[in-house]
UniProtKB/TrEMBL annotation:
This is DUF2023 domain-containing protein. InterPro entries: DUF2023, PG1857-like_sf. Residues 2-101 form the DUF2023 domain. It comes from the Bacteria. Signal peptide: none annotated. It holds the Pfam family DUF2023. The lineage of its organism: Bacteria, Fusobacteriati, Fusobacteriota, Fusobacteriia, Fusobacteriales.
Amino acid sequence: MQVFIHHIYEFEKGIRNLILHTISEDLLSFVENRLNSKNISYKIYKIKNGRYNVFFGDASCINVIKKINKSNLSEYSPEEDFILGIMLGYDRKKQCDRYIQFKNKENIKVS
């Protein structure tokens, strides 16, 4: 939970606009209560093994996540993956390299 609390701190200080945090089901109500009490926008997706991906942060960023509307990150298109990585603050050059790698794999499958 210390990492979750630190993520909230980073959001409140403007260091991050969007955070992705994975939790177990037993922490779900705590996380939701904390985000609600701080009036932080969020979207939660259930994933495998009784775990949950919690996206939280700026409302406009959460709206993008809601528009993509895919609970499984492996289902993201290369473009959606690129957008998510940039929104999460990942290295831009590495995201570009990752996108090209995904697109090259996609072209191999099509051929």
